[in-house]
Amino acid sequence: MQLQFTPEELAFRDQVREFLRTSLPALLRSKLEQGAQPSRDEIVAWQRALNARGWAVPHWPVEWGGTRWSAIEHHIFQDELQQWPAPATLPFNVDMVGPVIAAFGSEAQKRHFLPRAANLDDWWCQGFSEPGAGSDLASLRTTATRAGDRYRVRGHKTWTTLAQHADWIFCLVRTNVQVKKQEGISFLLIDMRSKGLSVRPILTIDGAHEINEVLLDEVEVPVENLVGEEGRGWDYAKYLLSRERSGIARVGASKQLVRRIRQLAAATRRGTGTLLEGVAFRERLAILETELKALEITQLRVVAAAARSGGRADPLSSLLKIRGSEIQQGLSELLLEVAGARAARRAPEEADATEWLARTAPRYFNWRKLSIYGGSNEIQRNIIAKAILGL
What we know:
Oligomer: single chain
Structural class: alpha+beta
Strand order of the largest sheet: 2-3-7-6
């Protein structure tokens, strides 16, 4: 495997860096470096800037905004955005519902939804998990009963990220209760303004409003909003989730956090020296850096294999999800160690109590979820055992 970029790939990387330097506001970059989250308006503005450059949806089919980049160029692009750091494009639009509609949707759905998803004219959210149907997603109980040219949807979705901002939700619903549970699921597109649909906030352990419950009480959905075939929703969900798990690895973001931890640890006094001079701390950081490099190489193998197979889902994406989430959690633990007791303060009270300190503990607690969402790591190990090891 070639581990060095070609001159053409290095030139492409320079193009990406120049775009970031000239297009991303310096204040927004600083905000992200401090561990803050971009606002809704900042995410929309950044994705529209990328879309104007032709880079918002590079992995989509060319006719809907794709770029014909090689797998390595895709990797370079995402790596540079995460390391800069820049806001991510909205994954529900770019990595989830967009590719599903492009692959399985009707021509009318493609013409209407894909340009709007790329430009973030519509904000999408994901309606998969339910109370009692999270990692065991096939146990979902939300039903869609057809009545003429409409479905009537009744059920309860939970852990719905950023539903408070969303215009549309893509949902897995049960359209047939008489067959094997995976075979009775369909994929519906639902307008969040529909009568009978309501959103209730869930506050996470760090006090943030990131996730929600979505209640559907006899919500009417036009039959034309069914993606693909009725009863094939489980196949479409697997197609979507394999791409979500690859993105969860966030190798570039972890690289940026490693640099940040090293910088902060070098400026943090502990005893007679700095924290970075401590052998135990350096060893833990070195182990995570080594694991991160191994993860990056595995990610390159996965994206290269996906390119050769025409985009077919690769079960190795489950490995990326496991290791990516574990490494991010390990880095959040190191960052908490750098902050020490100062992380417990709600507001800066000392001259050195900068913004990153106030966000260290919330980030640590929030990132406990990384090994759960997108399919828990235990479920991913089962997928690896079955699909790769043949157990």
